[in-house]
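Re: beginner question about structure tokens

> Can someone show what the tokenized structure looks like for a real chain? I only ever see the sequence side.

Sure, here's an example I had lying around. Input first:
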Amino acid sequence: MLPWLIIAWLWRKALNQSITGLKIKEIKKEIKTEKKVTAGRELIKKSCFAHDPRLTHQAIFNWAAATWPQNSPTNLKKLAAMLENNELEKAFTDLKDALYSPVSIENWDGNQFWQLIAKNLRKPNPRKTSGKKNRKLPPLYSHMAK
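And the corresponding structure tokens:
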């Protein structure tokens, strides 16, 4: 009986260590991702204050790639939609104008751009079903319930 108890105890200990090891790896990965997101946000801020629309554009996409590693947006319009903010769409349009218009690049105000986007550079919460009724599935075999 004693050998079985020892084997059970060793098996349980090994199982706990492997689960703990997995949790630690997940936590480390999450921290690494969060550091990339924070660094990306800081790079956006610095490039805005440097009044550099090209660097800002690149920094925004680096931040987005760190925020959504599985499904990062491919253009500013998609990013605005992912952030669920119409103000950002206007700001991103101004940024694109600054990038592709030779006159606008000198007139682009990075400080104003940062003030507008700073509060919106957060990953949105999963969509809630507010305003929608919770629809129930029809019962199975409803024809038999009669």
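Each token stands for a local structural state, so reading them left to right follows the chain. The longest helix spans residues 2-49.
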